[in-house]
Design a protein that fits this description.
The complex is a heterodimer of chains A (about 800) and B (about 170). In chain A, about 30% of the residues lie in helices and about 25% in strands. Chain B is an alpha+beta fold and about 170 residues long. Chain B has 6 helices and 7 strands. In chain B, strands 1-7-6-5-4-3-2 form a 7-stranded antiparallel sheet. Chain B is globular and about 45 Å long. The two termini of chain B are about 25 Å apart. The relative contact order of chain B is 0.21. Classes of the chains: A alpha+beta (about 800), B alpha+beta (about 170).
Amino acid sequence: MGKSELHLHALDARAEQAEHLESTVASDTAPMIGRAVLRREDARFLTGTGCYVDDLKRPNLAHAVVVRSAFGHAEIRGIDASAALALPGVLAVLTFDDIAGHALPIPQRVCPLPGLERFLQMPLAHRRARYVGEPVAVVIANDRYLAEDAAELVYVDYDPLDAVVDVHASLADKVILHAEQGTNVASHYTVGRGEPDAAFANAHYTRKEVFRVHRHSAVPLETRGLVAEWDAGAGHMQVWGASKVLFANRAILASMLKLDEKCIDLIEVDVGGGFGVRGDFYPEDFLIPFAAMKVGRPVKWIEDRREHLMATNHSREMECELDIAVAADGTIVGLRGHLMADMGAYVRTNGGVGPGKGTQFLQGPYRIPNVSFEVHALLTNKTPVGTYRGPGRYESTFFRERLLDIAASDLGIDPAEFRLKNLIPPEAMPYDAGALVPMMGPTIYDTGDYPAVLRRALDEMDYQRLRTLGGKEVDGRLHGIGIGCFVESTGGGPSENARIEIRTPGQVDLFIGSSSAGQGHETVMAQILADELAIPMDAIRVFHGSTTYLTRGFGAYHSRSVVMAGGAIVLAAEALRRQVVAHVAASTGQTVESLRYERGAICRIADGQALASLDTLAAQVAAGSRAAAEALSIEASFSNDNQLTYTAGVQIAHVAVDHETATVEVLRLLTVEDIGRVVNPAVVHGQTIGAAVQGMGGTFLDEFVYDETGQLLTGSFADYLLPTSTDFPNVEAITLENARSPSNPLGVKGAGEGGIIATGAALSNAVSNALSSLGVSVRDLPLSPNNLARLIREARARSTSP
Amino acid sequence: MELKGEQLIPLDPESVWAGLNDPEVLKAAIPGCETIEKLADNEYKLVLLAAVGPVKARFNGKLALSNIRAPESYTLSFEGSGGAAGFGKGGADVSLAPAEGGTMLSYQANAQVGGKIAQVGSRLIEGVAAKMASEFFTRFKAALTAPEATAGNAQATEGEQDGARRWKLWGK
């Protein structure tokens, strides 16, 4: 049906006026899902016309600077703000006493492991500072310069205490961070299934190793920031700069400000990257709105880079002793582990995810009948940890995949063969991997042919040929190839909302409860709705990231947006189609059964005659029809009952190592992942490549270094190194659509995190393979030149000593 | 951060010892030292301007002498706060021994910094400390051997003309 036909059947004169608008009646029936549509949002990002939180200006805006602890561990004997307050233009200096009647410990949002609730953080330090960067006071002034100057005048009287900076010292409990709890052990539990002890006792081969992942985290291009405005007359608080989980954060803020949730709106503007660390509730998410109330003016706070590196969640720091048991035929029969996670000084909103998911995924995509894992989550005088892209997965995949290579080498089995033998076969799906996270249901891998994914990656890399290069010297460099297999949970629940509203002919507005840190929702969600309503994508506007759009929403985490918001869009579109058919049936005196929705129009089944269209109904709305307005508005919620959907992937790296300079060149890194169904291949490809490069940075470069007193020594980009576009040019990604998800209407699985997960595993296996002739075996990350040079030196010393 | 070294000073141990215990000599010798004030026996209050990479700050601190075995050795410890720039503390075991051509002064020092200085300048600390140590001995020798021509006195003279600007010059 063409555009002209629409107006032939116009029911309302107003529809004629819509002639210049693009019709919502589709002329092209090809599905939009699966197309590499260019991202709509990129035009504004690439031309510098995006609107980020620091671009916002409000009348009479004041500026906040947070005074942060310079000590890793210290008593705060007092705070003297008189000199700061004496500066003309300084509006307030808030300390713990000022917030005491309002602030509450910041609650956990996800993965609440037993005991973690005892170590939550207050928005400002009270009597004791427990990490460098902990907020101690907030200065609010007429401008940022003044606020910075005043912050320097806030005198905090510290009495330094001994600090705990590693998990073993933490476990010893000699210096205790939270005296009232009497221990640094935030959580301690054991999970497992089968008969691991018997399996190990009877095994043909066992091997135990200790592995470590270093502390690093996401470093988005845009640091955090907020603008808060309190309208005392209306009793309304508006906060811009929120992201990720706006509705959850609104509930927390409401409880602290003692306001009804309806009196608060959180608004997400353009976001320059999140990767897990941005958008959960931080101390500033209370402090800045509270400051706005206190001074009676809008307040802006923009985190600077040094602040970001010490105040935004750190991640990844874990140690794991892992023990594998293998039968004579190469079948893995058992896996035991002890995981020690460095939590930093407090438990953050999602602090439990690292150890929780890190343990859950220790067994990965393999069929291992007997497992047992002991977990310690331990407090240290360092920045609290939270989720960072692939949380727990990157770490556990590194631990396990290194051990698999070590075992394969001992057993004289090719590492690829060893994996193929033990990957969960497709006929075992759905596969119950056991209940490995406290207070969470069993881990049930839903669909997937895991061996096929590995075989595809091996073929793509020409593994059999490449394997012969492993450990060989070519032009002065040693070559190595390494594999990392992973499984990844996506589609985090519990539910998500979508609302469709049509008020103008030619224009469909879609509101989703999900938020975007740059993933491309404005494009991808429009593609989904375009197919569901069979209308042109250009007619659809996508709105996200605001508590004003929907009654309820959940946000963006756990690779969930396309799964959950996509599911909600499908349900909302179904409901909308039903509603418009019912409306037209009622208004034209026909039965619902005699009509059907077809590409933006409501047609009589008998003769295919279009009786109305979304455009004509929209024109009725404009003309004041309440019935049409109701028919063209729907909010729907999709719940997955917390049934996650699991992707499987493989990364293979080919490296060349200069054993004199200990530098590694990644000649090729391939990532293959089966995500079931791809909505936009270009978006998925971009996110996968980006994740892989971020993972390579994490494996070689990024590292937070602390000294023994808890001082952070990497507070700028001169010391905290990030990959640049020239560092890792040879990254390839293949996305497979083999195994759809059974738990959501689109059959999609989450994408975007997979590309980071096995980078540490594949690269460290490749480097170990390259240096095998020297006897180097990587157990600790990062693979920095310093660390590698030390391993090479130690290996050489071992081989020359008798 | 650990630092050690030795310096030959062309004076007898007693003269060197006297210099090591003379606030005026120390003031002239310590790079960036603006004021030094005796609080008690073997305890001084001092103000020091120091720069580590991009961070420059005025440190208010205390200098204390302990383990004193005149005229052979003592332990010097310093603790100071540079306000928003962070803080520093450190110490040095200093010992004197007669040597050909004068007195051999040996030292073993350690320093620790915190706050902004540690975050953005930790990789520079070693170089800064080594430079300050070498400057200290150059000035110390100059102050002991030709007191009237020390840099400290020259600065002080200039400073008397313009008290406000006086200490800024020290940081250059």
